[in-house]
Design brief:
With 333 residues, this protein is α/β, with parallel strands linked by helices. The chain is built from 13 helices and eleven strands. Helix 12 links the parallel strand 10 and strand 11. Helix 5 packs parallel to helix 11 and helix 12 runs parallel beside helix 13.
């Protein structure tokens, strides 16, 4: 079975890109277009080194950008496919500065395998991974225990995305019927016993609709036709999402595709070994220990919305990755 990787990247310092962004964003800076949404920590060489060392079985890497390319990248690598937004996103949605638009059209990437793993550019492999860590019996590995949606912290667009994604799921799937068909997936020995108890309780108390699934900021395994099916079933909703130049409270995002697979039962129960950590003075030591110690399969290095000492923290991250991935990959010039 062929498995591809898809990764998104943006050079937030590209002057042409910045000029285009300013033309559309207006004078207001908010959660949709804040600098941390587009900041590049210079870690992509380590992303490619990790793939070469920890997932050499990947068929093709689709490197998605608006058009720019990091100067160190070897575009002649036989497993690398540089994909510009214009290569796969319908022209009426361009230019776009919304990850939601970029994500919800990835099934249109030319020569994309039917089975693929989606990465944001802040998600890194830390240990050797096998194909079966992402797909089993042709189905994407995912955590299918029910987790009621929780809205905590500062209100943001992500909370609206959860609501919009979940509403769409419940509009298309009868929970009672899906639980009957897929009991061995929502309740599984792959999960902790506490997770199974919670899922069973939620099924009994709220049988009519799903209350939510876990939001994993981790590489996600997808079937290409999942996106095709959502576009067929919800063309107006996705069209509305894609016409927003920046993230909007009205959008849906790739969580919808993950949850669609869960609600439909097209997944293999699996607990993803991933950790998410903000890059801040208070967390950088623990984050670097996680990287150097390779304490998890994967790590998501989250860029916080607050101002940080970018130079110092970036240097610390580079030093940590250099410990486990010191040698250039063949994806680098």
């Amino acid at each position: 079975m062929d498995i591809d990787f898809v990764v998104l990247w943006v050079d937030g310092n590209d002057p042409e890109w910045l000029a285009e962004k300013r033309k559309y964003q207006g004078n207001v800076i908010d959660d949709s277009n804040a600098p941390n949404r587009f900041r590049d920590w210079g870690l992509m060489p380590y992303w490619f080194r990790a793939i070469e060392n920890f997932a050499p079985w990947v068929r093709m890497i689709h490197f998605v950008t608006c058009g720019h390319v990091p100067p160190w990248l070897n575009l002649n690598h036989p497993k690398l496919h540089h994909v510009k937004h214009a290569d796969y996103i319908p022209h009426e949605y361009l230019p776009t500065f919304s990850a939601n638009t970029i994500e919800m059209n990835i099934h249109r990437i030319p020569d994309l395998a039917d089975h693929f793993v989606f990465f944001n550019d802040d998600m890194f492999l830390l240990r050797p991974m096998k194909e079966r860590d992402f797909f089993r019996d042709g189905q994407p590995c995912s955590y299918g225990a029910e987790v009621p949606a929780q809205f905590v912290g500062v209100p943001g667009i992500w909370q609206h995305l959860i609501t919009n994604d979940l509403r769409t799921i419940n509009n298309h799937f009868n929970k009672t019927e899906q639980v009957r068909r897929n009991q061995g997936k929502y309740l599984s020995r792959s999960y902790r016993w506490q997770d199974n108890i919670r899922t069973k309780a939620v099924e009994k108390l709220f049988p009519e609709s799903f209350l939510g699934f876990k939001n994993l900021h981790a590489p996600a395994a997808f079937l290409r036709w999942t996106f095709e099916e959502i576009w067929q079933r919800e063309p107006a909703l996705l069209d509305q999402t894609c016409r927003n130049r920046f993230r909007s409270n009205d959008d849906v995002n790739q969580w919808l595709a993950i949850w669609w697979q869960l609600a439909k039962g097209t997944f293999a129960p699996y607990v993803v070994d991933n950790v998410v950590e903000d890059v801040m003075d208070s967390s950088i030591d623990a984050l670097c220990r996680t990287i150097v110690g390779q304490n998890h399969d994967m790590v998501c290095i989250n860029d916080p919305s607050k101002d940080v000492d970018f130079v110092t923290l970036s240097g610390r991250l580079h030093e940590a990755f250099d410990v486990i991935l010191p040698e250039k990959s063949k994806f680098e010039k």
